[in-house]
């Protein structure tokens, strides 16, 4: 195991609206305080009663998916907590991932694409046992 899934992040035009939709669908608490991230205009969260966390990321000029149209595919990414960002990066690259955004060293997270091109982020944080 390289890391632990932190949350699933969905791109959208309005994270607050979408988080409230999913709260009605799944139950849970919108924008509960959490040390892992800050909520704000561009970021909203839903902590479900079963422990799943969904995050909603505002994207300028968002074009909603139109299933099954390949020109408008589904839009989400995984955030994965890892205890050692450098070691995790080396391993996912070895597995066929591509580094898309290394960011600033102090940022503590990096963006990759999986072998099929889907983005995911590694976040340098301790994995819970």
TrEMBL record:
<dbReference type="InterPro" id="IPR037523">
    <property type="entry name" value="VOC_core"/>
</dbReference>
<dbReference type="Pfam" id="PF18029">
    <property type="entry name" value="Glyoxalase_6"/>
</dbReference>
<dbReference type="InterPro" id="IPR041581">
    <property type="entry name" value="Glyoxalase_6"/>
</dbReference>
<dbReference type="InterPro" id="IPR029068">
    <property type="entry name" value="Glyas_Bleomycin-R_OHBP_Dase"/>
</dbReference>
<feature type="domain" description="VOC">
    <location>
        <begin position="4"/>
        <end position="125"/>
    </location>
</feature>
<protein>
    <submittedName>
        <fullName>VOC family protein</fullName>
    </submittedName>
</protein>
């Amino acid at each position: 195991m390289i890391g632990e899934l932190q949350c699933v992040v969905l791109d959208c035009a309005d994270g607050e609206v979408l988080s409230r939709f999913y709260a009605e669908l799944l139950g849970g608490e919108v924008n509960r305080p959490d040390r892992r991230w800050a909520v704000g205009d561009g970021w909203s969260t839903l902590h479900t009663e079963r422990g799943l966390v969904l995050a909603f990321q505002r994207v300028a000029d968002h074009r909603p998916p139109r299933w099954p149209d390949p020109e408008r595919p589904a839009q989400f990414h995984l955030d994965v907590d890892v205890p050692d960002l450098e070691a995790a990066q080396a391993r996912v690259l070895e597995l066929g991932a591509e580094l898309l955004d290394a960011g600033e060293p102090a940022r503590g997270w990096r963006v990759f694409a999986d072998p099929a091109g889907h983005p995911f982020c590694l976040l340098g944080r301790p994995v819970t046992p």
